[in-house]
Amino acid sequence: MTDSPDQAELDLQEANLEKHAPELAMLSAEATRQMAEVGARIDSAASRATILISSAAVASGIQATASSSVFQILALIFSLGAALLAIPVLLFRRGKAQDKRKGHAKEVSIEERLDHLLTWSPRRLEWDLLTAKREITKQDRFALDRRASYLRWGFVSLALAIVFTGLQLTGWLSLAMPMHHHH
């Protein structure tokens, strides 16, 4: 088998990777730590989403028992909005590393790396894993940041529902429905 320019370039890359083995190991450890941190943030967001949905259910239950008014209707709408904003956070799916055989995998594909076990050097495998971890973490962070804004707006919506419920229950009905004065 003759060496193509591509093979010569790959050999040079392999040699460079081998020279930087300690740095590669440090970067790999950091990538693993970041993946774990993002995983913890995803779990935390799911817990907050569950709390938001439960609180919205309680708030809407209180509003359903109150007499119908503008405040009660607004409170019910904002409670529903809070619950709806939490749903995408609960349905969060982890980032996907490209898997050539199956299209996508939800995590780093070990099967795909096993296919290269006999042809890749340990450093090449480490580099490939590092690249996959970085891609997954990047996708997860992007999706998590977007969903964090859903949670923020969900809690704002719930707070407004509570304010409207409070106004309803404390009899501030006159603000929503001004009374007509007869002369």
Helix/sheet category? mainly alpha
Q: Could you give the order of strands across the largest sheet?
A: 1-2
Percentage of β-strand residues: under 5%
Q: What gap, in angstroms, lies between the N and C termini?
A: 105 Å
**What's the SSE pattern?**
HHHEEHHH
Low-confidence region ranges = 98-105
What is the overall pLDDT average? 79
Number of domains: 1
Number of helices: 6
Q: Helicity, in percent?
A: over 70%
**Per the principal axes of the C-alpha atoms, what is the gross shape?**
rod-shaped
Radius of gyration: 27 Å
Task: State the total count of DSSP E strands.
Answer: 2
Largest sheet: 2 strands, antiparallel
Tag the structure with descriptive keywords.
single chain, 183 residues, mainly alpha, two-stranded antiparallel sheet, 2 strands
